[in-house]
Write a structure and sequence with these properties.
By secondary structure, the protein is of the alpha+beta class. 54% of the residues lie in helices and 8% in strands. β1, α1 (13-22) and β2 (27-30) form a beta-alpha-beta unit. The protein binds glutathione (GSH).
Amino acid sequence: MLTLYFSPGACSMASHIGLEETGAPYEERPTLLAKGEQKTEAYLKINPRGKVPALSVDGKVIVENTAILTYLARRFPEKKLMPDDPVEAARCIAIMTWFSNIVHPAYQRYTRPERFAEGEAAQATVKDLGRKAFWASCQEIDALLRGKTWMMGEQYTVADGYALVFYGWGVRGGFPMNELTAYTAWKDRMLQRPAVRKILESERNVLVTPA
Ligand SMILES: N[C@@H](CCC(=O)N[C@@H](CS)C(=O)NCC(=O)O)C(=O)O
């Protein structure tokens, strides 16, 4: 049995989309960050770091989007969610690692500067640097998508669902995402995918739910 712990609107949407794309049955366990449910004793037994997502596979827990998505692609190879070629597969994992290590923390510095610095002036600097770094990452994603259908080219992969998290965060954070023409055209293609649309609607994502 596959059980996904996630919070609507959080980075866990990447794993939620990846899981839905496999077509496999799974159980959903919403773990609402807004209510602090990621810090409850029960959830800390799932992920002691108090973060979503977490995927339980017959009771064995996998954390980190990149690991969960790589697992799903390997568990369901017939779904072709990652390139077969080892070099292309490694490049797909590298994109997800960049999302996790660089893009996500940049947005966090922008929205939660108090986690990185003390005092108003220092936090304002962290916030501003986070905003610039996040926007630079969005521009880089836009450049990567130019001339391509999906992040990895012609093949849709688990990296695509992950990239959609940041488009949504950009909209939510007031960034001019429409200026990023390749990223925006790709986002429109993503919204045509039944699995993506289903998850965005169930999470009431800003990309499908009017503000
Ligand atoms: N690198 C991790 C990041 C996980 C993460 O930071 N999740 C956030 C939601 S976007 C979270 O659970 N935050 C709760 C908290 O920090 O209290 C991944 O990709 O899975």
